[in-house]
From TrEMBL:
This is Transposase DDE domain-containing protein. It comes from the Bacteria.
Length: 97
């Protein structure tokens, strides 16, 4: 078993076992961890992070930017096809002459 030392100025812990946290803080940390796990689940299963070709902090940043670009492009095409983008905006983008 690995002995983990928690810095004294750490106010909350969201990883590890509930028994690693003082009893008075356990409920708060469980709620925070629950919210975090839900966010990670959505990111992996609905936003494509489970298929990421890049790893680590830099890789996650690259993948999140690619996902955002893909989402924005999809939304733009939907709005363009539904003619919900003003002519002024299309001219600024160089899509109308």
């Amino acid at each position: 078993m690995v002995n983990q030392t928690i810095p004294k100025d750490t106010s909350h812990i969201f990883l590890g076992k509930s028994s690693d946290v003082d009893e008075k803080e356990q409920d708060y940390c469980r709620k925070g961890r629950s919210a975090t796990e839900g966010f990670i689940s959505v990111a992996k299963n609905l936003r494509g992070f489970g298929l990421s070709l890049y790893r680590g902090i830099d890789g996650d940043r690259i993948w999140s930017l690619l996902c955002q670009i893909g989402y924005n492009l999809k939304k733009f095409i939907q709005l363009y096809n539904d003619e919900e983008i003003s002519e002024e905006s299309l001219m600024k983008l160089g899509l109308l002459g």
